[in-house]
Specification:
Number of strands: 10
Structural class: alpha/beta
Order of helices and strands: HHHHHHHHHHEEEHEEHEHHHHEHEHEEH
Number of helices: 19
Oligomer: single chain
Strand order of the largest sheet: 6-7-8-3-9-10
Amino acid sequence: MHPHLRRALRFVLPYRRRLALVLCLSLVSTGLSLLLPLISKDFFDHALLSRDLSALLRTSLLFAIVTLVGFVLNVVSGLRYTRVSADILFDMRLEVYRQLLRLSPRFYARTRLGDIMSRINNDIGEIQRVAAEAALAWVGNVLYLVGTVAMLAWLDVRLFVATVAVAPLGIWATSYYRKRLEGEVTVLRQRSADLGSFLIETIQAMRLVVMANAQDREVARFRSKNAAFIDALMSMQFLTYVSGALPGLILSAGTGVVFIYGGYRVVHGEITIGTFVAFIAYQTRFLPPLQALMGLWASLATAQVSLARVSEILDAPVDVREADDPVVPETVAGHVELADVTLSFDRGRPALDQVSFTARPGEVLAIVGPSGSGKSTIADLLLRLLDPDEGTVRLDGIDLRHINLRMLRRHVALVEQDPCILHASIAENIRYSRPSATDAEIRLAARQAALEPFIESLPQGIDTVVGERGSALSAGERQRIATARAFLANPAVLILDEPTASLDPFSERVVIDGYETVMRGRTTIVITHRADVARRADRVLVLDGSRLVEQGAMGLVEARHRQSPPHYSLAP
């Protein structure tokens, strides 16, 4: 079995009992549908030709009952299957989402957001469409086709041979075009992802586009990418029509043979008119399921391509895995240690190279250095978003690889330089780190982050919705909301990545005072370019060229820099 289909089967197996019920209902519905031509045979031979009124009423009533019961069963089985298929595809989408939560920053650094969204929405949506519309139809059509073939052969073998003689040619045509269709669908999916990535990138960079007077250039790029998508769509659609219509056209040729040959045999008395009518009725039922199966076979090509694209995410290597029996510390003092840590992003040189330092519980440690020296990478390591290639990162003497991830991220918090703000109220954004927090605790965290004057100026106060990615806020306001979120989490270790880069001097002093108040007695690691911020630290680490080049009190570091200036400088 193809590995992608084997993976899809793994999602199906938990629902096998519900699917078995759907299959039974479909089987009964198909059986009832196959009775209708036989009832029409009795209608002609025993009711009309024999002029038997009671037989006429009996067969008419039976025909109505069978039709109605078959319709009800078909509706029930279809609805139940749609629900089951939706549950199956949600499980698949959920596994993809959980996999995305497990993947490290390395994956997101090399994968476009548009490609990810295309797989979650378009590809899984296509799988769901095929599963919901095609799979049950496949089962029903197979059952119907088998039953129809059996009835055709039972009614008249020679007419049956004339009916199926052209079937192999139609099947070959379907197989031939299905292989070509897979390639066209793959191209179409990629063109769709390219278009989605373009829209996401340019919408996020809309200010840059406008300020650079690049509107016409981006419109031209949009037009070009859309043209490529249209070309791929038209090519795929053409093959879809051909793969569906040509086999049906070939199979329809057998119908003309049956009309001529069957009519000849009726005229010569070799078969009854009722048998011929029943055979024609079954033959009209023979072509649709066979054509449908061929069309479904072609549609499976698109589902297989989508399964392959989804599998690319599910098979992406997970860099950070929790230990089988992780340690859950009862308390966290906040002793941080990096021992000979080296980490590379495959850029030709390591992001960190043999870096070692410790931060004692309650110590305020500042990390300074030029851009690209690995400062923010240390934050990712302490949160275990990444694991080092070499060396060890420890918390209270325990290797982070052995600590329960939920517990680790409960006690280690990060305020990023460009924090993530949700499309929600200010209160909901702050509460995100601790959903059980009271309104009073949220307001205290906001006050400590110097947010209170800003909140009081808003008509809706702390319940004001801040827009997509905090678009209704300034950079400093976004940073202060993220700071309040960190205060509310009350961690043992707080990492501040350029915490005051977007703040005015007054707000910077208020926020730093808030840090000192809230984090007194707790470990704080401040990544900064600001000399005033670094001076408040107990100790300063200087990174340069991915290495730790010096450490000590800020006054001593500044004195050494005055004697031998580095190639970078700290802001006042």
